[in-house]
Design brief:
The N and C termini lie far apart (64 Å). 42% of the residues are buried. The chain has two domains: 255 residues, Aldolase class I (TIM Barrel, Alpha-Beta Barrel); 75 residues, no CATH class. 44% of the residues lie in helices and 18% in strands. It is globular and about 60 Å long. The strands form three sheets. The chain has a nine-stranded mixed beta sheet with strand order 7-8-6-5-4-3-2-1-9, sandwiched between helices. It has a three-stranded antiparallel beta sheet with strand order 10-11-12, with no helix packed on it. Strands 13-15-14 form a three-stranded antiparallel beta sheet. The chain is α/β, with parallel strands linked by helices and 442 residues long.
Length: 442
């Protein structure tokens, strides 16, 4: 543990040096009043796993061996490059995702954090999250990640039923999961999140709700409920297609989700987003940046980002995707300083569509002030206030549009996808009426 602790001290020292440099340059210390264009979250993708789960189609790889020193150097280099390109002066959260980032060395986590602290302002109380799988994160290793700078864990528990865990291709048992969860809570009290899946083949409502009740006897203050999505190219998809497994029942999945919401609400959890529940204020501030359409930089193979490249003289927000395959990504980083494979400028209507779709995922919804950050002229009332279709949704109690803004009700949040089928065309129509096409025929 000596080296991670040294790294953590290095991060803290780098933060102090950077803060002194800003004072010397007249920028005045922690830039809490800086505009949103100079603040961002940072996502770091670790692409490797021990094995591929049967439901997973994420960008992950099962390596014969990982040259971690090379990967660490490239993660640091790309983080430095993207921070410089973005002109970001304050990183508000860092999230190490994957893949299985708990397979990475704590030295790698510390090196990235140290580089970020040297390049920009990383507050000492920033949320630093690491995704962890139970079999790759015993208590001693979790302590090393804590010494490296991690202060929040997201544990991929997925199920408390060993048969279901085998079906999902997980490498841990329910006992392993609970043991890791207990160790995590001792090390990071109040800052441990767990994932639980629903809607698996042959899964029934009662036993699944029993799992959730059991989890509540062991968990911390953040729970995420995710419905299984059968993705083409995965082992589960093939088994269902071949008839060796029954197709998941969407009606049963809906019952599980609704029942789970009620159980968590009774246990004092706030459903602050479609899939995420927290109590005692334990919201994920990193994910909140996504839902509020804040800037985020994506570092690592296949990582996604959205930011304005102010440091490179840009003025338009861009969606960026890094090269997927790790070896090719590393070659590009070594040649160019980053591995950005695709860079897509986002138009104003695209931004508003994203604000609408992402903001309505939260219980706060979209405030008038938040909407006006992205369009000061076209208000929420202008877009939705006179719509007969929207009025019907308001009368059915699925939506609320008032002095606070636009948001889903408790009944509307589970059916957000169907609400967007009405809301997005309404936004597009309002946009076209405000900015009619100059091309004949539209």
């Amino acid at each position: 543990m000596a080296v991670p602790q040294a790294r953590a001290r290095g991060w803290a020292a780098a933060a102090r040096v950077a803060q002194r440099r800003r004072r010397v340059e007249g920028t005045g210390g922690p830039p809490r009043s800086e505009p949103a264009s100079q603040r961002a979250a940072l996502y770091v993708h670790w692409p490797y796993c021990e094995k591929r789960c049967s439901y997973c189609n994420f960008n992950k790889y099962i390596p014969r061996g990982v040259e971690e020193a090379a990967m660490r150097k490239c993660l640091v280099t790309e983080a430095q490059t993207l921070l410089r390109l973005s002109g970001v002066r304050r990183v508000e959260s860092v999230f190490f995702g994957g893949g299985t980032p708990s397979l990475a060395s704590p030295h790698t986590v510390a090196a990235v954090l140290e580089a970020v602290a040297q390049a920009t302002y990383l507050p000492a109380d920033s949320e630093i999250t690491l995704e962890a799988n139970p079999t790759s994160a015993p208590g001693s290793r979790l302590a090393e990640f804590g010494a490296a700078g991690v202060n929040r864990l997201s544990i991929g528990l997925q199920s408390l039923d060993d048969t279901e865990l085998r079906l999902l291709g997980r490498t841990h048992s329910a006992g392993d999961a609970l043991q890791t969860l207990a160790a995590a809570r001792r090390l990071f009290p109040g800052r441990v999140s767990v994932d639980l899946m629903l809607g698996l083949p042959a899964q029934q409502v009662g036993p699944w709700l029993g799992q959730l009740q059991e989890l509540l006897r062991h968990c911390d203050d953040h729970v995420s409920l995710y419905q299984l999505s059968l993705e083409r190219g995965t082992a589960l998809f093939a088994q269902v297609q071949q008839g060796t497994l029954p197709a998941p029942d969407p009606e049963l999945a809906s019952e599980m989700y609704q029942g789970g919401r009620e159980v968590l609400r009774e246990a004092g959890f706030r459903q602050y987003e479609v899939s995420n529940f927290a109590r005692n204020g334990a919201l994920s501030t990193h994910n909140w940046t996504y839902w509020q359409c804040g800037q985020y930089l994506g570092v690592g193979p296949g990582a996604h980002g959205r930011f304005v490249p102010q440091g490179a003289g840009g003025h338009t927000r861009e969606a960026r995707i890094q090269t997927l395959e790790p070896d090719n990504w590393m070659k590009e980083v070594m040649l160019f300083g980053h591995g950005t494979r695709k860079c897509i400028p986002l138009g104003r209507l695209e931004m508003l569509e994203e604000v609408l779709a992402m903001g309505l995922r939260t219980d706060v919804g979209i405030t008038h002030q938040h909407w006006q950050r992205f369009d000061p002229q076209l208000t929420l009332w202008d877009v939705f206030g006179a719509s007969k279709e929207v009025k019907e949704l308001l009368e059915r109690g699925l939506l609320l549009l008032d002095h606070r803004g636009l948001r889903c009700s408790w009944e509307g949040l589970p059916v957000l996808d169907s609400l967007l089928l009405t809301l997005l065309p309404q936004l597009q129509e309002a946009w076209q009426q405000r900015t009619p096409s100059l091309v004949p025929g539209g």
